[in-house]
Write a structure and sequence with these properties.
single chain, 24 helices, disordered C terminus, mainly alpha, 0% strand, disordered N terminus, 679 residues
Length: 679
Amino acid sequence: MFDPQSLRHEGHKRKRLKVNGACDACRDRKTRCDGRHPVCLACETRNCAQYCRYTRRAKGNDLTAASITSRPVSVQSTISAPPSASGKTSQRIASSTWDSPAKESDGLATLTSYDDNSTYGSSSTVAFFRRILSADDVIRSAVRLEREENSQHRQKSLAKPHASVAVLLERRETDDFISCYWNFVHPMFPVLHKPTFCDQYSHAGEMEIGNENLSCFSSGREHAVFLSMLNLVCALGCQFSNLIRDVQKTSVAYEFYERSKQAFQHDWLDAADLSIVQLLILNGVYLQSTRHANRCWNSVGLAIRASQILGLHVEDQRHAMSQLEHQMRRRIWHTCVSLDRLLSMTFGRPTMIHGTNSVPLPLIIDDEYLRVEGVGVQPHDAPSYLSLFVNSCVLLEILRDVLHFVTTCEPGSEQAGEEANSAPIPSMVAQVLELNRRLDRFSTTLPIYLHMGDSDMEKLPCSNEVGFQKKVLYCRFLLTRLLVLRPMLLSMVASTDDLHCASLNENLDYGIIRQCCDLCISTAYNLIDTVYVNLGTMYSSSSWHSVYFTFSSAIVMLASLKSNVLNMQATDPSFQLHWTRCLAILDYYKEHVCSATQVIRSLQAVQQRMFKEQQKRADLYQSTNPPVGGVGLTPISQLSNADGPSFADVFYSPDGSIQDDFGTNLFNLNWLELFQSET
């Protein structure tokens, strides 16, 4: 699809590419660049392809639909052009978009800069890493020095799109992106009406902005809104397409996002309608997969405010509505509620929508059966894709109470104050059991075609829409259960009082706590297995969420090794199997998700420190006891790095930013302090 050779200069030979033809990374390093697209040889050799960017010229993009659906005009024809024979050089774009400091986390709170002053919940890893920095001035000083040396490269690589990737689209390619959107994004966030959107799309390429003669669009404004929306649909869909190489998907998606931004006008917010709310929601959904956490948070917030202006938060009985309008209003509002709660979990921040949601759930009926006149119904023999969304909304009602439990009962929670630190373990046990019962009831009430047990995982077909819905919902279910059970596991990790542990052995609570911890570990294993068996299949969770699920499970596995009620060892076959699968998943997605590589480094570093600690204990035991048969830990001297990377190396990427890898309200990593203090 893409022809990198067409962007290269075939003229005179030169020993070194002029600065305007070199990539940003080579310019910063002051090294030779061959100007190869999409990734130059120097960056490929250094294994830093994700930082190979080319500065684009200050030339506006064509915002018509024709520029998206046809090939005649290359957006990139002047982006990476080498200097002309006359010696004129291209000017670097001066937009504030490129020059603004990159002080943001990504949309899943996996990455944040040292100077990011955003507020994250006390149970997020963002807050935990900041506490680590405050406690270790040596690490902080070392990181500041490295950060100063690489800050300019960091700004450029995060802020700018991959200008070397030409968005030269034929209608066939755009159709594929949109098809991927309907298959993989729409079932999770059904904010668009497919027949209406497809009808608009079929007419969009035939008109220019300002042409109001076609009945498909009532005004030029409506057409402009659609063009902005179309770019976001392509930005989301192209990330699931097989027409683009994995290493290019992020850059191509970002180019679509930039086009959508250029088409969007803030004046539209003065008279918001449903299309504006849809646009803001799609914007927030896309930003979840980027390194713009604040944009994601704010975009969803704007969508909620705009939907409240339109009265979507109440069931309007005053005006007669068609089935189509009525159901779309419900879908859009419940999508706002879902995103509000998901982001609240991700960043540890309060939700905007409080209390019980009074708007009834939308009907489980596909788009094509909704009627403007009359009432349509879903055929009995055709499972609806909307079942995933509706049942996810029910699951998120449980998640709302789970988040309240975590912030009030989890040890170390700042939001809970003294209540968290004084909450007796029996009280925590009672709440965990009640929430877990609600999850069990939810699981049993699912439709047959969405019901999935642990034994069904290997049998699940990987090439159909129903299988996709089942996998996504099952992963969300396991993630919620992991969040319910994790406080109990961490309470045992944090407890170092042997007398307290001894007292637990004398009552029934110990047995219940032990079962909760066992279930937490088995849930983590199931989540890892679910992601692993679907590697390389089309109908699986998105790449960034797959990494998110994997890391959430991995840190629970590590925490289990420190639990006082579990006899977990790193050499246990089941532990080793799932640890290997974790690393395999992260390695598979390292070209899809740039932070996956750093997640691997972090996990391996902590693992090495744990092996070192356990080896010391084993040596101490062997010095006082005769050797017995069995498999021992690998001697630390035989590891690739005997001392293990420093915590500065673990928490910071080579470009000097803090790697808060998948730090969410789901993960309180205070237990990591145990490894630091004991090494």
